[in-house]
Write a structure and sequence with these properties.
Length: about 240
């Protein structure tokens, strides 16, 4: 909403109301009627402003100057104070800070993010997370979703196919559920986020959307970082 424009339209209506009162007091009937016609035109944007701010704003059946003046004052007050009221009365919500994401994610995204290339920043972060995963399990032959599926697989490691394992008792259902969940989420991150970004134009990606996508890769990066590497025993 254009605050300055709205306030100017309210000021126009206020000025006409003052002029109508003055003409009435001076018994200038012709001038008063002319000003009242101007007021009806001036009230068109004012009514739209009221509709934008309120549901069922109480416009008087007969638009007398006495009835209109306090309503216009109410609209002005709503416009002037609305942003501060929202800011100070809305529930406090946590703020998502990109520089607190896992270093692999933010280091990959930082330069592109600073230049306003949000989608490219997410893609760069995904590529760096993939590279770090390749380094950790010593794989260059596969990448992205396929690499995540093999790295987090519950199956035993094989020669040239190491696994990532969370700390904890691997015999429990909780551990297995976490391992399987990491497999699914990491695969999904690369399949549903990284791949589309690499093949579509997302130059107009909103900051909030980009932050949420970076957060997904930050979770994946922390899991990769947290896990230990399990390799096949020599001779298996």
């Amino acid at each position: 909403m254009n605050l300055d424009w709205c306030l100017e339209r309210l000021a126009d209506a206020d000025s006409l109301l003052d002029a109508i009162r003055e003409a009435r007091n001076k018994r200038e009937s012709d001038k008063r009627r002319s000003l009242e016609r101007e007021l009806q035109v001036s009230l068109v944007p004012v009514r739209h402003i009221a509709d934008a701010l309120f549901v069922n704003f109480p416009w008087p059946v007969y638009s007398s100057t006495e009835a209109l003046a306090p309503l216009i004052s109410e609209l002005r007050g709503e416009l002037v104070w609305a942003s501060e009221i929202d800011k100070n009365l809305e529930p406090t919500a946590p703020q998502l800070r990109a520089d607190r994401f896992h270093p692999w994610v933010w280091n990959g995204a930082r330069s592109l993010w600073d230049s306003g290339h949000r989608a490219d920043a997410v893609l760069a972060a995904a590529k760096l997370v993939n590279a770090q995963l390749q380094n950790k399990v010593d794989r260059r032959d596969i990448s992205d979703a396929r690499l995540c599926a093999e790295a987090f697989s519950l199956a035993d490691p094989k020669p040239h196919s190491a696994r990532l394992r969370f700390p904890g008792d691997r015999s429990t259902e909780s551990w297995k559920a976490r391992q399987q969940g990491a497999l699914e989420l990491s695969k999904g991150a690369f399949t549903a986020i990284r791949n589309p970004l690499a093949h579509t134009d997302n130059s107009d990606m909103a900051e909030q959307q980009a932050l949420e996508l970076l957060a997904v890769f930050s979770v994946v990066a922390r899991w990769i970082d947290e896990c230990e590497v399990a390799r096949a025993v020599q001779g298996d």
